[in-house]
Amino acid sequence: MATSAHTIAAPARATTAAGSTTLRRKQGFQHGGWFVAPFLLLFAVFVIWPLLRGVYLSFTDANITGEGASFVGLDNYREALNDPLVWDSLGHSAYFTLLVVPCITVLAFLLAMLAHHIERGKWLWRLCFFAPFLLPSTVAANLWQWLFNPGTGMIDHVFGLQTPWLTDKSYAMLAIVITTLWWTVGFSFLLYLAALQGIPDHLYEAARLDGANAWHRMVHITLPMLRNITGLVIALQVLASLQIFDQAVVMMDFLPGPEGSTRTFVQYTLEEGFTSYRVGYASAISVIFFVIIAAVALARMWLLRNREESAR
Amino acid sequence: MTTKAWTPSQILLTLLGTAVSVVFLAPFAWGLFTSLKSETEAVEVPAHWLPEDWTGQAWKALFDSGNITNWFVNSLVVSVCVTSVVLLVSALAGYGFARTEFRGKNVLMGVVMAGLMISPAVLGVPLFTTVQQMGMVDTYWGMILPQCAPAAMVYILYKFFQGIPRELEEAAFIDGAGRWRVFFTIVLPLSRPSLAAVGIFTFIASWNNFLWPYMVTNNPDLMTMPNGIATVMNSYGIQWAQLMAGGLMAGLPLIIVFVFFQRQIVAGVAHTGLAGQ
């Protein structure tokens, strides 16, 4: 990698003292191919290659062994677009994302404000709100599966209910959303907390001198200063939520939930790949999913650029 | 240290914080109390908070059934290996992209940034067939290596290295130090806080990773903690007290790690705050 750069450095030694200094300075920053090589090797083998392979497999009828696959052109894609389960599972992932993202963003902000403004025991609040995020997803899911258990669970006990949380179509996804809020809000909370601590105090002092009350300070200083971090929190949450898998399958005992109402897109892909052994078809679904994720990510970049331009 | 005054607004906020914390911690408490009940008491209706008959039998059964110590060791091996490899390769790559020149750098950087959008969830099936072809299904290699190419960590460190003043390195180059020496003796020590953050988040992600180990292992002896608890313990028909005990065991190490590192984080913040004044 980058072998040609070596030849440039060689004649430099013959030049004047001043000239060689600048060149040696530069030389320090030259031909750094070996620094990135180990990462690129892993990246090529475990990200790029599977991605290309997935695209290739999506045009075949490969099974799990990968042997005897033949080329079927666009058949998998045609089938996927007419497969109601593709649309259902995509809808479930999207519905989950639409519920989770706004709730987490608001909740994380409120918790961070609280933890930022309480003067005593800061580490304790931080630990309390962040602790659930430290649980493995499967443990959080098992725990809430137990809490939602009708009759014997904490939720029914505390609220005096008898709700078929995990067995009724209209509650199942809601139960997964509640679990996810509790489990993951800590991460966004920490991002907001760090951002709040980064706002310089003198802004607030100046506003106070100008007679701004707490509400004004929040609307005119805190919220605008948090705009970037809010963008980041939302973007990370959207991408993570679209890929929801763990909580849903564990809470539903590895089944697609009541009437298939919690089957998510990732889950459907794995069902096709590892249960039905249709690797070609599963790859086609993965490619569709990748295109959707990429579109969301690119849309975000485009929005950011537009906002920056309009800010000028 | 001066004790801060209890103003009315502070009392109100502290009460509010306490209430919210109770809500956040209640699920842990319910799980803990369940793990200290007998299996029959755990599923009694109506439910109650405290065990009437405190017993450690679920915890004992957990250890007697054997698998859990295996899972714990597997989790430890996988997470420590993943964290070490990720720290090494992403620090090197972040520095390479931030501070050195080589042919095709911008194109490669673009490819890595595109990698931010690709996760095992999207790659799942083809990644599995790739790992299968390499003969790494049901091996430590198969669990570890595919977790070792996180574009996000490279990006975080790349951004950090860009912020280090070039003059620090240039002075060393003039004194005759080579690139590698500069990297190990000047750049890495300066980056300790960033490396710690990358390390901690990689460790959490790897310890808690479910999807990839779920795909790549079928052998219960090779499973990691989250994996074994979710698949093996559930498959016997759920024994709630034991499941809660296992869950608490799987969650505890990271909570301890966080308590331990949080002090350092707080100390670090205080230190930079002092330095800024």
From TrEMBL, chain A:
<dbReference type="GO" id="GO:0055085">
    <property type="term" value="P:transmembrane transport"/>
</dbReference>
<dbReference type="InterPro" id="IPR051393">
    <property type="entry name" value="ABC_transporter_permease"/>
</dbReference>
<dbReference type="GO" id="GO:0005886">
    <property type="term" value="C:plasma membrane"/>
</dbReference>
<keyword id="KW-1003">Cell membrane</keyword>
<protein>
    <submittedName>
        <fullName>Sugar ABC transporter permease</fullName>
    </submittedName>
</protein>
<feature type="domain" description="ABC transmembrane type-1">
    <location>
        <begin position="90"/>
        <end position="300"/>
    </location>
</feature>
<dbReference type="InterPro" id="IPR000515">
    <property type="entry name" value="MetI-like"/>
</dbReference>
<keyword id="KW-0812">Transmembrane</keyword>
<keyword id="KW-0472">Membrane</keyword>
<keyword id="KW-0813">Transport</keyword>
<keyword id="KW-1133">Transmembrane helix</keyword>
<dbReference type="Pfam" id="PF00528">
    <property type="entry name" value="BPD_transp_1"/>
</dbReference>
<dbReference type="InterPro" id="IPR035906">
    <property type="entry name" value="MetI-like_sf"/>
</dbReference>
<comment type="similarity">
    <text>Belongs to the binding-protein-dependent transport system permease family.</text>
</comment>
UniProtKB/TrEMBL annotation, chain B:
<protein>
    <submittedName>
        <fullName>Sugar ABC transporter permease</fullName>
    </submittedName>
</protein>
<dbReference type="Pfam" id="PF00528">
    <property type="entry name" value="BPD_transp_1"/>
</dbReference>
<comment type="similarity">
    <text>Belongs to the binding-protein-dependent transport system permease family.</text>
</comment>
<feature type="transmembrane region" description="Helical">
    <location>
        <begin position="240"/>
        <end position="261"/>
    </location>
</feature>
<dbReference type="InterPro" id="IPR000515">
    <property type="entry name" value="MetI-like"/>
</dbReference>
<feature type="transmembrane region" description="Helical">
    <location>
        <begin position="182"/>
        <end position="205"/>
    </location>
</feature>
<feature type="transmembrane region" description="Helical">
    <location>
        <begin position="107"/>
        <end position="128"/>
    </location>
</feature>
<feature type="transmembrane region" description="Helical">
    <location>
        <begin position="71"/>
        <end position="95"/>
    </location>
</feature>
<keyword id="KW-0813">Transport</keyword>
<keyword id="KW-1133">Transmembrane helix</keyword>
<feature type="transmembrane region" description="Helical">
    <location>
        <begin position="140"/>
        <end position="161"/>
    </location>
</feature>
<keyword id="KW-1003">Cell membrane</keyword>
<dbReference type="GO" id="GO:0005886">
    <property type="term" value="C:plasma membrane"/>
</dbReference>
<feature type="domain" description="ABC transmembrane type-1">
    <location>
        <begin position="72"/>
        <end position="261"/>
    </location>
</feature>
<keyword id="KW-0472">Membrane</keyword>
<dbReference type="InterPro" id="IPR035906">
    <property type="entry name" value="MetI-like_sf"/>
</dbReference>
<feature type="transmembrane region" description="Helical">
    <location>
        <begin position="12"/>
        <end position="33"/>
    </location>
</feature>
<dbReference type="GO" id="GO:0055085">
    <property type="term" value="P:transmembrane transport"/>
</dbReference>
<keyword id="KW-0812">Transmembrane</keyword>
